[in-house]
Amino acid sequence: MEHRSKILDCTIRDGGLVNNWDFSVEFVQDLYNGLSAAGVEYMEIGYKNSPKLLNATEPNAWRFLDDNFLKEIIPEKKFTKLSALVDIGRVDPNDILPREQSVLDMIRVACYIREVDKGLELVQMFHDLGYETSLNIMALSSVPEHQLIEAFEMVKESPVDVVYIVDSFGSLDPADIEHQVKKFQAMIPNKQLGIHTHNNMQLAFANTLTAMRNGVTFLDSSVYGMGRAAGNCHTELLVSHIQKPSYEIKPVLGLIEKHMLEMRQKWEWGYIIPYMISGVLNEHPRVAMAYRDSADRDKFVDFYDKVTSPEANLAPASK
Amino acid sequence: MEHRSKILDCTIRDGGLVNNWDFSVEFVQDLYNGLSAAGVEYMEIGYKNSPKLLNATEPNAWRFLDDNFLKEIIPEKKFTKLSALVDIGRVDPNDILPREQSVLDMIRVACYIREVDKGLELVQMFHDLGYETSLNIMALSSVPEHQLIEAFEMVKESPVDVVYIVDSFGSLDPADIEHQVKKFQAMIPNKQLGIHTHNNMQLAFANTLTAMRNGVTFLDSSVYGMGRAAGNCHTELLVSHIQKPSYEIKPVLGLIEKHMLEMRQKWEWGYIIPYMISGVLNEHPRVAMAYRDSADRDKFVDFYDKVTSPEANLAPASK
């Protein structure tokens, strides 16, 4: 399986959820060049949501990707393809150029299970514009079986290239992942699968390896794990562990050395006890993130009592 | 399998390799009480090697365990049993009391594959004194198959209770662990198995879960992962993930909150790039540990070049 797999690095997109996309142009260029030298197949350079639809008052280059800006900062494409993520209801179809006029190669659509129909409408549009597409179904660990079956009836008929298994809460272990992959394969045998993990229980890398060994081809990761809350599977681990002659670890080590240590000092992500607890409890990390921003950030027993008390109300289905 | 498994916490013993066993009596007592409240079955309270045989010039309470001292600081045993580790050629048999006169319940013998005969002599002696025993074969990832077969012929005939699979270099992944467990089970079907992992590639917890699901019963870990270099599987992850009603996470969270954050500030262990590299390369972490003590500690590309250059000579079989 290993030679068929592809790494999709989400450092900018998922990492932006940590620092409000406060990445310099130099960093994004270094990342693109480094990932290309490392043989990483895809880099997700941000969200392509609409500032208007989100009532944004500040510019945010990596949250509201603009094709002209992208062409300026990446005047020449190298090995790595570029992708962008969009959210249902937050993307303006008029913002999307035909692929041949864009620096982007792939557009990925994130949605919850109840919005799969809307997600597939977007997929169809991006597909017709020439893009590779994926559908990323979030919060999978909370999706009832019958909803998945209904959704997959629609997915099967869609032109979507890749369907992602997304462990949004970092609550799945390798046995769970294997179970999900087999379910997805049985229900949508005509689709490539992808995996997006979170590291709440230090299982992001192991879960990604398990998915790969069971036939999943698109592997999401980020350099030094940078991503919301506990972060993601680490790109450097995939590049060094997967037996593919085109992968080179040194350019990724160079990125970590030059940028990531300092960024980790400035912004927090990774294995941190409240995120471990939210993963164990299969909860969105939002409560844990708020706790980490408070004076009580290191009161782990209090946090555990709070989130497990009968009054706790922690898992609304919305973002 | 889960209900049969037992956690053996190595915080003091393996963590002592990080801080030269600079643990206060208060910390060790808190750890013992916390692990007992958490339902952790065993705590390894240190090494029972001989200061004379090691020509030690300084006292070191947790490296050279003394039964009288242990009785003073743990006057009353609670739920958790106590174990100690010994090394071949470093333990003086005259230092070992019969079990009924000791606070210790288990003595574990660490050895390399070529010393298994000597290891089993010690095991026999400790067994005859009434202790539970284990044989921990180190550096397993470098052991040739035929040596393992020869060693296991002796192990089969020994009274040893538990034989450990030790991933000394943190170089194994879950597929490797499954392979090793099945090999051990086929060769020594009459023995319980144990697993001791290192977290170089963020696989310590996943490897431990894989071992457990394949029938391994003794699971080594340490609180917040404290152990040499990349550290071990985290006790808090095992206690929160294993489905065993007797496990309680809160006492372990209390230990992390009260002690481990501060200790992690003072001493270094965990997922750190040079340790990741030594794991990937299946090398002892000693070169990486020396590098982390130098001014070049964060020059990851240089480190990689150094350890992969044709002149590098990194893996002598000795400790």
UniProtKB/TrEMBL annotation, chains A, B:
Keywords per UniProt: Manganese
Residue span, Pyruvate carboxyltransferase domain: 5-257
Keyword Manganese part of the UniProt annotation: yes
Keyword Oxidoreductase: no
Pfam families, per database record: HMGL-like
Top-level taxon of origin: Bacteria
InterPro entries reported in the protein's UniProt record: 2-IPM_HCS-like, Aldolase_TIM, PYR_CT
PANTHER family associated with the record: 2-ISOPROPYLMALATE SYNTHASE 1, CHLOROPLASTIC-RELATED, HOMOCITRATE SYNTHASE-RELATED
The protein's name in its UniProt record: Aldolase catalytic domain-containing protein
Native source species: Bacillus songklensis
Lineage: Bacteria, Bacillati, Bacillota, Bacilli, Bacillales
